[in-house]
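re the bet — no i am not wrong, look at it urself. input seq straight from the record:
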Amino acid sequence: MKSIREYKHAQTIALFDTGFTISHVGHQLNISWTCVKNAIKRYCEHGTFKDLSRMGRPSKITPRTAHHLKRLTNGENQANVNIITQKLNDSSTWCVSSRRPPKSPDLNVVGELCGIIDKKLASKPINTKTDSQKRLQEEWDNIPNTLYRALVDSMSERIEKCLKAQEGHFL
């Protein structure tokens, strides 16, 4: 909607009250009939010639963005981890380390499962999103329980190999 000045709103109401039609008021003031109609409606509903305040687009902050903003404004995250670690070590009988674990793909069995499913999904073309979801569920259901058990049982061996590689990749 095109905005018109307050005095045009006042002229619009005055001409309309004297008996002019909406189209004649618009022609007389050189504004569109919709602006005339909106000005009359606004005056009847709110009793003012001024434009109403607008809300605009609401800001959209997701929980993830809110968490990220909190971390940015909080600062010194590693210092907080060290404080928590120290308090845990003071209050418990077992030792807690603040050193972050390596992000070794060799220890990620879920990643290995995803790789297996990806290979099976790539064997046939997928045309739609529903087809993709259906095929993904089918392939997930077709993974034998022995594979799950083998991956879980291999964790101790994987950890030993990772320690021997001194946090390097061993696969």
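see?? The longest helix spans residues 77-91. told u. also The chain has three domains: 6-46, 62-100, 103-171. so pay up
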